[in-house]
Amino acid sequence: MRAGHEGTGPGAITPDGCAVELYSRLPVEGEPEIVAGAAPVGATLLELGCGVGRVTHALVEQGFKVTAVDESAEMLERVRGARTVRSTIEDLDLGEKFDVVMLASILVNTGDPAERRAMLATIRSHVADDGCVLIQRERDGAHVDLPRKHVLPSGAVITKLSSVPVGDDGRRSVKVEYEFPDAVWTQTYLIRPMGVEEFEAVLEASGLKVDRYLTEDQSWVRVVPV
Known about the structure:
The chain is 20% helix and 35% strand. The chain has helices spanning 20-25, 31-36, 56-61, 73-76, 113-126, 196-205, and strands at 6-8, 44-48, 65-70, 83-86, 98-103, 127-136, 148-151, 157-166, 171-180, 183-191, 208-213, 220-225. The model has no long low-confidence stretch (mean pLDDT 97).
């Protein structure tokens, strides 16, 4: 398990605390539509941190040619219709360029600055010169008014239980509970919130820049190579 990360509940748990069975139950929540509105149909798409294919499968159905990357073999076993590659994001080197590179699940907000730089380097080396990158960043205000519940259409309840500062460098330890009628999972992870100005500066240092924000809360961003 990675330092600062922990997962509890039935089934396999990945190094960053994600439960494979849990993620196979979580619904798609608008991500495919956001991607479709920012990238041409039929584009080659590199999905970094694909998990069980929750979004992958919808992208394949929309006509994208998806290469799905994850470090967990148990996650990749559930991916269908896409080429799969087992690797951490920071160590990936396919020697290929893609029309679109996607980094979702607020992975850009990792609590490890070196890991973030390595992720962005991977993105920069795999995006075509005329391509784009779609990044999901943590929305502003994500750590206030806790605990906070979100009820899924299935009736399952996601509760963001706590967000505690770690050290003096802006990192936070976040704990989330996922309650289903037949099982409960928790995930604890380290995250580093970044405002828009800092986020854009981090991108610039990696040879990337914001093209436009795709959602009102500025959580989804279309980025292009410099």
